[in-house]
Amino acid sequence: MNLEQIPHIKHIDKDNFFLLAGPCAIESEEMALRIAEKVVNITDKLGIPYIFKGSFKKANRSRIDSFTGIGDEKALKILRKVAETFKVPTVTDIHEVSDAKLAAEYVDVLQIPAFLVRQTDLVVAAAETGKVVNLKKGQFMSPESMQHAVKKVTDSHNEQVMITDRGTMFGYQDMIVDFRGIPTMRQYAPTVLDVTHSLQQPNQSSGVTGGRPEMIETIARAGVVNHVDGLFIETHFDPANAKSDGANMLDLKHLEKLLHNLVQIRKCVKAL
């Protein structure tokens, strides 16, 4: 994958990790623009290449009454407005083959959710749009098995592909990050560490996923030390009242300090 080919990507000359960050789901135009403005200001200050993340719909929900979105095209138009307002690229996840063509009209990166990364038709549909494809590693998959998902994209005549590790199931209700997998997956494609989803605690009896956001900096630091190409962080100005994944999101007020620390660690690692 070549970052330079992503529209509006900035700061690629700074030799930093790149960042995919934003809310779990698009809840409204006001919230998306508010979060994007804050993250753009921070990443411009720190020289971090930035892609705004927001799901236009949420198909993988624990309960039937869980929030799934505000309407597909409404949310996608908000993602386009974020891109136009702040001149940043955007990423959203897709769940069905028909989503690929629709979402590709609005965003720059199509993300394949971890539970769906083995779905060949979905991966190929995303690849055939010509957009960058972000493959989330399945919680049930080995790092080595991700080479086959990458090959599905490249065999579809699209070299713009990256892998994102979002942790591996450890029992029924916890996730771990096996940092041995990062150098393995980097052999196949640029590799991103999804810090916040790696701290989820799924399958709670309440039907609402839990999380350990107090460990975000611990996981992120370890990722930077181990040479991840990018970081994925879901963030919200009011995580307690977010409509999706609030339990593991980073409070937006803590993002600047976190990223400042991580940039300093990156400099130390690069100097070794």
TrEMBL record:
Xref: SUPFAM superfamilies: Aldolase
Catalytic reaction(s) noted: D-arabinose 5-phosphate + phosphoenolpyruvate + H2O = 3-deoxy-alpha-D-manno-2-octulosonate-8-phosphate + phosphate
Keywords recorded for this protein, A-Z: Cytoplasm, Transferase
Record keyword Chaperone present: no
Pathway it works in: Bacterial outer membrane biogenesis; lipopolysaccharide biosynthesis; Carbohydrate biosynthesis; 3-deoxy-D-manno-octulosonate biosynthesis; 3-deoxy-D-manno-octulosonate from D-ribulose 5-phosphate: step 2/3
Localization terms from the record: Cytoplasm
UniProt domain DAHP synthetase I/KDSA: residue ranges: 13-269
Keyword Transferase appears in the UniProt entry: yes
EC annotation from Swiss-Prot or TrEMBL: 2.5.1.55
Main localisation: cytoplasm
Entries under InterPro entries matching the protein: Aldolase_TIM, DAHP1/KDSA, KDO8P_synthase
Gene Ontology MF annotations: 3-deoxy-8-phosphooctulonate synthase activity
PANTHER family reported for this sequence: PHOSPHO-2-DEHYDRO-3-DEOXYHEPTONATE ALDOLASE
Family the entry assigns: Belongs to the KdsA family.
Protein's UniProt name: 3-deoxy-8-phosphooctulonate synthase
Lineage: Bacteria, Pseudomonadati, Bacteroidota, Flavobacteriia, Flavobacteriales
